[in-house]
Write a structure and sequence with these properties.
The complex is a heterodimer of chains A (277) and B (307).
Chain A lengths: L1 H33 L21 H9 L2 H32 L5 H11 L4 H12 L8 H25 L4 H8 L4 H12 L1 H17 L2 H6 L8 H10 L5 H33 L4
Helix pairs in contact in A: 1-12, 2-12, 3-6, 3-9, 3-11, 6-9, 6-12, 7-8, 9-12, 11-12
Chain B lengths: L12 H36 L18 H8 L1 H33 L5 H9 L6 H12 L6 H7 L18 H24 L3 H9 L4 H29 L3 H6 L11 H10 L4 H32 L1
Classes of the chains: A mainly alpha (277), B mainly alpha (307).
């Protein structure tokens, strides 16, 4: 019996290890390409680690390209989107979780249907609507578009977090004379902090990596976000893969950090509400 | 009807109105934004499907009725893209689900370093999709990536060639990249659902002599079923609309073997600049997805009512 258990434990750890290797290997390759000097890029293309490693791609990207601007723009766009979406989604998710009202099923249906839109279909109309408002080629325009796209899923996420908190808490507060909104703000919201963190992180990573609308709504380097900036490495005369991958690694850092911090809350929060739908 | 029939405790009209309006006030900001930035453009986009909209042609813009749809009925490339979409979506969702479920089950057991392992396993989700696509395209390239050589060594390939340029195998490239990228989403939601199952159920089942397989089938699966249904529904819809990886890795080629409907729309809109035709295809895709979702929701409803 004991040997069977031991064998089971070993198999379990090995399976986890195998999965970690599978998840990290492509990221390792990204890193490897970014530190390979240009003259070794193809000649040592399949080596696990180049015979000479260099940081020159990183110094070039940071010092001589528009990448710091792209980086700053992305940070502004993803940050503002995450905060706005989380506020709107908490309010809407609370309504869906705590109230019974006639339009509820229509709202849920509308939000589900928005998930099915082929986004390419929306590019031209959105461009036509935003351009007389002066919102094309501006970070504000991007934030508005990303917020709208991310609100539906974030609302479902927040709803499931609220579902996990017993109703008696705010009922008690309301018997003591608080309005529902005060009960929501002062009692329920603090309890949903893990859920809020999860939603923030989820939306941040989504907005951080969006390419299609950033490409279509922004022209010129001043308001470009980093996915668009990465493409400029391709469209030059020759593709400089080393620099591109170095920029890619730098761009991964904030998204990964954010994600590493919140993934725990994502599981915890969803557990509490259990995504029962 | 007499006046006295009203219960005396009825709240004043204003209070009742305020109570009824409250949920709408909470959801109004989100709804207004969704309607303004998604629904209105969608209606506009649907109208494009019935108009002749070509970006570089100043004489275009007139209504042409169902012409786009008639052309679509004759378009062999579209039907091929439709078949490819089924294959792409089916394989991606199935593999993501199976590996996501296995990963969730593995991570559900407490062990030292579980937090770290969980964080590392979920990391691919944070990688921007087009960067993931680029990176996998590298990995599959025999000059600069190790995968073809490994597959050759294991006898999966006859020669260390790039599978992305082999018409028979090309679709596997984006599918593998997509599976790598999408497993965490399934794993996160399924792990959350697993941890919500009351532990004493398992203990009770063990005492009654149920083996691990029996416990999985009669406790775990029924508890996970609602989550599985909703996640598979969402993922199917997302993945069939998800053209990033294909556009970056193969651009629909070789010989249209990896062209899915979403990437075909992208090609029509941004390479041929024919927004009218692109919108007509997108409308067909939207209708197909709506029908699919309705079927899943109905299926789930009947399953839930049975219990």
């Amino acid at each position: 019996m004991r040997t069977r258990q031991l064998a089971f434990t070993v198999a379990h750890r090995l399976a986890i290890l195998a999965y970690i290797v599978f998840a990290l290997f492509p990221l390792f390759w990204l890193l490897k390409v970014s530190v390979t000097p240009n003259d070794l890029l193809y000649s040592e293309g399949v080596r696990m680690w180049p015979s000479r490693a260099t940081l020159e791609h990183y110094t070039f990207v940071i010092a001589h390209s528009a990448f710091p601007t792209f980086f700053k723009n992305s940070l502004i766009v993803a940050g503002s989107t995450a905060v706005t979406v989380t506020i709107l989604a908490s309010l809407a998710g609370y309504a869906l979780s705590r109230f019974r009202f006639r339009a509820k099923y229509w709202i849920v249906a509308l939000m589900l249907i928005t998930q099915m839109f082929p986004l390419v279909m929306l590019v031209a109309p959105i461009f036509k609507m935003l351009s007389p408002l002066g919102l094309t080629n501006s970070l504000t325009g991007l934030v508005i578009v990303y917020t709208a796209f991310n609100v539906p899923f974030a609302t479902f996420l927040m709803q499931s977090f609220f579902d996990g908190i017993p109703k008696d808490l705010e009922e008690a507060a309301m018997i003591d004379g608080a309005t529902q909104f005060i009960a929501f703000r002062q009692i329920i919201l603090p309890l949903t902090l893990p859920g809020i963190a999860a939603t923030l992180g989820f939306v941040f990573t989504a907005a951080w990596s969006e390419l299609l609308f950033a490409l279509m709504l922004i022209s010129g380097n001043d308001a470009a976000t980093f996915p668009v900036g990465l493409l400029t490495f391709v469209s030059k005369f020759s593709v400089d893969f080393g620099q591109m991958m170095a920029a890619g690694i730098l761009a991964l850092i904030p998204a990964c950090l954010f994600f590493l911090l919140i993934q725990r809350y994502l599981v915890q929060g969803l557990t509490a509400g259990a995504v029962k739908g | 009807m007499t006046y006295a029939a009203h219960p005396p405790a009825t709240k004043p009209f204003r209070k009742r109105f305020a109570d009824a309006a409250e949920p709408y006030l909470y959801s109004a900001p989100a709804l207004i934004l969704i309607v303004a930035v998604m629904l209105v453009p969608l209606v506009l986009g649907i109208s494009y499907a019935f108009r002749d909209i070509q970006l570089l042609n100043p004489f275009s813009g007139g209504f042409i009725g169902l012409d786009h749809f008639r052309a679509l009925g004759q378009d062999q490339a579209f039907f091929r893209a439709l078949r490819n979409t089924l294959w792409w979506t089916g394989a991606s969702v199935f593999l993501q689900f199976v590996f996501g479920l296995i990963l969730a089950l593995l991570l559900d057991k407490p062990f030292a370093g579980r937090g770290l392992a969980q964080a590392l396993c979920f990391l691919p989700w944070a990688v921007p999709s087009f960067l993931a696509g680029l990176n996998w395209a590298w990995l599959f390239n025999p000059v600069i990536g190790p995968l073809p050589h490994w597959m050759y060594a294991f006898g999966i390939l006859d020669a260390p060639n790039n599978i992305l340029s082999d018409p028979q195998l090309a679709m596997w490239g984006p599918i593998i990249a997509n599976v790598w990228w999408g497993i965490p989403f399934f794993a996160i939601t399924l792990l959350a659902a697993l941890q919500a199952i009351p532990r004493d159920l398992y203990e009770a089942a063990s005492i009654d002599g149920a083996g691990p397989v029996q416990r999985f089938v009669s406790i775990t699966l029924p508890f996970l079923a609602p989550t599985i249904a909703i996640t598979i529904l969402l993922r199917t819809v997302w993945i069939s609309n998800f053209a990033d990886l294909i556009v970056v890795m193969t651009n629909g080629g070789p010989a249209d073997r990896t062209q899915i409907v979403a990437s075909y729309i992208f090609t029509q809109a941004f390479k041929r600049l024919d927004f009218g035709y692109a919108s007509a295809i997108a409308l067909v895709l939207l209708v197909l997805l709506l029908v699919y979702s309705l079927l899943i929701v109905l299926l789930r409803q009947t399953l839930l009512n049975k219990d």
